[in-house]
Design goal:
Number of strands: 12
Radius of gyration: 23 Å
Structural class: alpha/beta
Distance between the termini: 42 Å
Shape: globular
Strand content: 15-25%
Length: 329
């Protein structure tokens, strides 16, 4: 540290007008040592963006189930093509890199289609849970500077002053092919807002690179193959990103419970059995309710259970290990 300080002081004396970030802190010998340790810089193109990983899977496994909701299933090809048509429509409306598109929809296939379409168009999505208080919705829309809002007909009254597009309408006049990418890892993928419990809600801009790297980290960390993920989180919570893009970039099926089932552990256990869910993420207390209210007979497909969002007591963990000892927790 003393050597670094000496080098920095010498740099200041020799270049007194240089910004701090341009001043040297390492000696020439240390710089050469670091360069020797570094791997050569790759001249390959940037990594595929998260929606391009999904597109690859759609091309390789077009008939594989991608999305399950309300007794219906969309294949990877069907989900990709519907998102492509909406993305081309968004491009035709002038949306592109760093455009901000609000998405407000009840749980449905159209909701996932809209999120993918915004990324494919090159824009950033801002999730707006329709169950939020009107004041919070109005504040986020104004604060985020939304250019366009994707929503559904029953929700239009909530957004009467916005430029809106109903996502349940047909976009069959637009191409089924994936749009040419126009964004980089540095562009914004989505903006997520805090609860505002300590003041006004604050929007965090998440880059394409952040989204890609956090998703790939999940691929690496969770070794058990993800065949079906049960999405319990609201799409306006950042935890939903884990489930949506982790699943659709790894070839799994994203299972969306219907709104009325979200607070009914027994209904969710039945859905886990029907869809052969392998992974889920839940509040510790709610996960305990799923186990205790339904028993373990319907949970035999589970491989990984992730709990988050509140403190997890040893009682929750012990209950899991006692009843589902083969399931990672």
């Amino acid at each position: 540290m003393a050597e670094h300080l000496t080098t920095l002081l010498e740099s200041i004396v020799s270049s007194p007008n240089a910004p701090l970030k341009q001043l040297a802190i390492l000696s020439k010998q240390q710089q050469q040592q670091l360069l020797a340790w570094q791997p050569p810089v790759s001249k390959e193109a940037q990594p595929l963006l998260i929606h391009q990983l999904f597109e690859q899977l759609a091309d390789a496994n077009p008939d594989k189930p991608a999305l399950a909701f309300a007794g219906q299933t969309l294949s990877y090809q069907q989900l990709n093509q519907r998102a492509n048509q909406l993305a081309h429509y968004l491009r035709a409306q002038g949306m592109g890199a760093e455009s901000r598109i609000g998405v407000s929809a009840i749980r449905s296939a159209e909701l996932i289609i809209a999120l993918l379409a915004v990324l494919k168009a090159g824009a950033a999505y801002i999730p707006l849970d329709p169950d939020y208080p009107q004041q919070r919705l109005d504040y986020i829309i104004d604060n985020a500077g939304i250019d366009l809002l994707l929503t559904q007909t029953p929700l239009l009254a909530k957004f009467s002053t916005q430029r809106t597009v109903c996502i349940e309408q047909s976009f069959t006049d637009y191409s089924l092919a994936s749009p040419t990418p126009i964004t980089t890892l540095q562009n914004t993928a989505y903006i997520i807002y805090t609860s505002g419990s300590t003041g006004q809600p604050k929007g965090a801009l998440i880059s394409q690179g952040n989204l890609l790297h956090s998703t790939l980290a999940r691929h690496h960390y969770y070794q058990e193959p993800l065949s079906c993920f049960l999405l319990l989180s609201s799409f306006a919570f950042d935890s939903s990103v884990a489930g949506i893009f982790w699943t659709l970039s790894q070839g799994g099926c994203l299972c969306l419970p219907q709104q009325n089932d979200l607070t009914h552990p027994a209904a969710l256990a039945k859905l886990i059995h029907q869809q052969q869910v392998s992974h889920l993420l839940a509040l510790p207390s709610f996960y305990t309710a799923i186990i205790n209210d339904s028993g373990v007979a319907l949970l035999g497909s589970l491989k990984v259970v992730i709990v988050a969002g509140e403190a997890c007591s040893s009682t929750v963990a012990n209950n899991h290990h006692e009843k589902l000892p083969a399931v990672k927790f």
